Amino acid sequence: MQLPNDYQTQMTHLLGEEADSFFATYQEEPSRGLRVNSLKLTPTDGKDRLPFTLTPIPWTDTGFFYDHHKDRPGKHVFHAAGLYYIQDPSAMAPAEALDPKPGERVLDLCAAPGGKTTQIAAKMKGSGILIANEISRERRKALVENIERCGVRNAIVLGEDPRHLTTRFAGWFDRILIDAPCSGEGMFRKDPATMERWSLRSTQAAAELQFSILEATAPMLRTGGRLVYSTCTFNPRENESVIHQFISNHPEFEVVRAPGVNHFSPARPDWANLDPSLNHAVRLWPHRLRGEGHFICVLEKRAGEEGARQKPGKLPPVHKEAAHVFSNFAKETLVEDIFPGPYTLFGDHLYHIPDDLPSLKGLVVERPGLHLGQAKRKHFAPSHALALALKSEEVKRRINLSPKDEQLQRYLRGEALPYEGEKGWTLVTVDHFPLGWGKVSGGLLKNHYPKWLRSEVV
Ligand SMILES: C[S@@+](CC[C@H](N)C(=O)[O-])C[C@H]1O[C@@H](n2cnc3c(N)ncnc32)[C@H](O)[C@@H]1O
């Protein structure tokens, strides 16, 4: 791997005696990780059921190393069922530091493709409000797909520049994650394309952007709330220096000790002659642990200006007919009334939304809540997102297949299956984990597995 010359000089200068062992990691393969989705199964269940060789990742309860020479978890049907998320082991650390709880209001500001969003959602256990924001329209698609695949019920996906959110959500969030856009030095080994975009100037530009994102975000945190700033770069300009500049402007913010310190290395304020409290932030080094490069800083807001709390906002009213067709579908298909509303309609698409959400008017809204499906005149077509957000026992009709069943392969290819069951919408599950919808009539299960996902799985 040919590293940029300026980068080699920078790291040699910063690391001194340690530089050789650091550079040696570029001759090694990156470790691979997957995180069991605890919205669907416990990590212990995951270790027992997933047909891969898994070794626990020490800094998270749900993460495991896997052997990519032996196992291809991205291709397995359990991936399509959202049982896990493939994620760099180090990238699992920021959401651990954020430590979100059920019932809280959480913002994941730079969210795509959703590794940390789905990890935060699992920790929130479906309770509270998770706002996942991603400025790039292209990247939002993957974010939505991952949120849906993982069965997240309480996420709203926005597509805003952070500056447009500041006053709307003033003082509103209990926790905020800024997994900032960065020069990506920590990812050169895993994603060499990052190197092509790197230059000393790009690190300076990244630092300026990161500072402006922090400034726009700070007012959205309530007093007593927690903000985690993370990057996947080694550059002190984008890490310690940005935080130093930020806390100099905002004395109400304090750097607190990041959890998992024993596994990680302290930050290096000495590299830029900065505030020693920055020592509480951590660095993840590829020559010191099995993962790529990361920086994590936990900030708490002690006092200061409390933004005006926003009143719940009004979303467009839901046409009675749409609520009615969904209610009929729910009565016919679900065991209990688990989605009692409120709802909102985008076109003819119905969403289940949290009831105390501030107004989203004027913002780029990709998903206002859980996509329930499409209300077409007298009929309701349930969404794939709904299938994946359900538990097998929450539906009246289901067909369970095993991963090796030939019928399952046919279902995943989009074929109809012969089936003499009760008529109506039927959840297709693999080992009792929802995979998608089918509709039974006349001795056939008509296939409603999404076209864009067909034949991805082996
Ligand atoms: C490190 S990535 C996020 C990875 C994500 N948190 C995950 O775990 O999957 C940083 C994200 O910031 C977004 N971004 C780029 N410019 C931005 C800006 N000006 N404001 C906010 N986000 C930005 C990028 O599109 C990118 O998706």
UniProtKB/TrEMBL annotation:
GO terms for biological process: RNA methylation; RNA processing. The keyword Transferase applies. Keywords: Cytoplasm, Methyltransferase, RNA-binding, S-adenosyl-L-methionine, Transferase. The active site is at C232. The keyword RNA-binding applies. S-adenosyl-L-methionine binds at C110, A111, A112, P113, G114, G115, K116, E134, D161, D179. Pfam families: Methyltr_RsmB-F, Methyltr_RsmF_N, Methyltranf_PUA, RsmF_methylt_CI. Transmembrane segments: none annotated. It comes from the Bacteria. GO terms for molecular function: RNA binding; RNA methyltransferase activity; S-adenosylmethionine-dependent methyltransferase activity. Residues 22-302 form the SAM-dependent MTase RsmB/NOP-type domain. Belongs to the class I-like SAM-binding methyltransferase superfamily. RsmB/NOP family. This is NOL1/NOP2/sun family putative RNA methylase.
